[in-house]
Amino acid sequence: MAPTKRITNAALFICDIQEKFRPAIWEYPKVIATAQKMLKACHQGEILSIPAYATTQLAAKLGDTCSELAEPLARLNAPVIDKSAFSMWVPGLKEKFHAAEGTGTKPQAVVIVGIETHICVTQTALDLLAAGHKVYILADGVSSCNSGDARVALARLRQEGAVVTTSESFIYEVMGDAKLEQYVAIPPTLCDSFTFS
What does the pLDDT read at residue 182? Predict the structure, then answer.
């Protein structure tokens, strides 16, 4: 029997990783690096072969998506939806999400990176769970201004039914089998290690 992916029909959500937040967010470079890694996995050799969606929070006041993510998002034709609600699960994003080929309205696995863990990421995850989606939160790809808020939010999200994991764990869980063509396309630099501070 041919090997198959363990997780199919998934999507990447990138929540409000904007220039204005750069000096305020705890471990912001790590959040950006994880988002870059996930976008690279979505694109390079179709390792994950999943669509990406991004949001900005009041871009006119808080700025555009950070410069490191602009080009990879454009390369993937990923929609960037501006919003005022804290949750990403707003009508403009829902419309793009449901219109994407193969998604329909059936529940999907959604993996989330971005900021802030205890506000926008939490509300997005809760809305997605309520809509019947399986939600993965990448611990190395989310943060808040205060590290304590991020830790409490991750514990709460776990209790609410989200899967809290890491980017490398998620990538390999999607693969599920080393015999998949996409597995050999994973470059060693894609899965760099990280430590919790």
Answer: 67
